[in-house]
Structure formats: C-alpha cells, structure tokens
Specification:
It contains four helices and five strands; from the N terminus they run ββαβββααα. The protein is α+β, with helices and mostly antiparallel strands and 159 residues long. Strands 2-1-5-4-3 form a five-stranded antiparallel beta sheet, sandwiched between helices. A hairpin with a 2-residue loop joins strand 1 (3-10) and strand 2 (13-19). Helix 2 runs antiparallel to helix 3 (104-120). The chain is elongated.
C-alpha cells in the first residue's frame, strides 16, 4: 500500500486516524502537528526516511497522510482532498468542538477504505485516467478515419 497512515486533527487534537503499519508513525505525525503554523489554508510536505508526510490544512483542520516517497505527490493530495470533503460532509459543524478521537470509530474506516482505493485503484489518479480516455478517443477517431478511407476506396473500386 502506497499511502500507509492518515490523521485528521484540529491543531494537535487528533479527531481520527488510521495506520496500515505498526511503528512510530503516529508519534512522528504528532510532532509534525505541533510544528505546523496555525494560520490559513495550505499544502505542505515533509520527508522522513523513505516516506513523505503530505499535509492539507483547510477549514481550521489538518488532514495528513504518510506515503512511500516513490508514490509522488498528486495522488496523496487527491486522497487528502477526498478525505477533507468526506469529513466536512459528516462532521463539519461539530469538528471545531469535538474531543480527541471523537470521530475515530466511524471515520477511521473511511480513512482506511479511501487509503486502499487511492493506493491501488488506477482510476484514483484522475490525471492518468483522463489521459487514457483521451488516448482512447484519439485511437477511436483514428480508427474511424481509417474506416472512412477504406469505405471510400471500396466505393471507388466498385464504381
């Protein structure tokens, strides 16, 4: 799995988290949470060994995931945007006042499911999916042009 850890927090208060690995990932993530600036929406990355921590700060909340350093940045940030949207849809109003781990029972499952989807499903990479669709349309267009040309030649031969 390319994305292996995720957390949703309000400042240093963890509201929900999921880890696909054992180890000190949560400890490192909490240290990062402590050092983040508290103002405005932003996107940040920090590297640690063979991993990159991707951070999306939005709506006074922090959405953080850890991925293998070979996984790139586009898909982890797509994951975080998806998590942000799902979290706000479910807990937007209460997130600002909720105690630590208040959403963990329900939302850790969402973190896990979306983590698996974005780590392994090719359609999670919107840019590559659109490229493939464009290539299919171009190939289909080329095929149609060839068919028209073949039909035109056949018509000439039969005339």
């Amino acid at each position: 799995m390319a994305i292996i850890y995720a957390v949703v927090a309000r400042g240093t208060t963890v509201l929900s988290e999921f880890s696909a690995v054992s180890g000190n990932t949560g400890v490192v993530a909490r240290r990062i949470l402590e050092k983040l600036p508290g103002d405005g929406d932003s996107r940040l990355c920090f590297s640690q060994d063979r991993f990159i921590f991707h951070i999306l700060v939005a709506d006074d909340l922090i959405f953080l995931c850890m991925a293998n350093d070979t996984f790139g940045r586009r898909i982890p940030f797509s994951y975080l945007e998806d998590i942000h949207m799902r979290f706000m849809k479910n807990y937007g109003r209460v997130a600002q006042y909720a105690p630590a781990y208040a959403m963990n029972d329900e939302f850790s499952r969402v973190l896990h499911q979306q983590m698996e989807f974005f780590s392994s499903n090719p359609s999670a990479d919107t840019l590559n999916r659109v490229r493939e669709e464009v290539n299919e349309v171009v190939a289909c267009g080329e095929q149609s042009a060839m068919e028209v040309e073949v039909l035109r030649k056949m018509k000439m031969v039969l005339s």
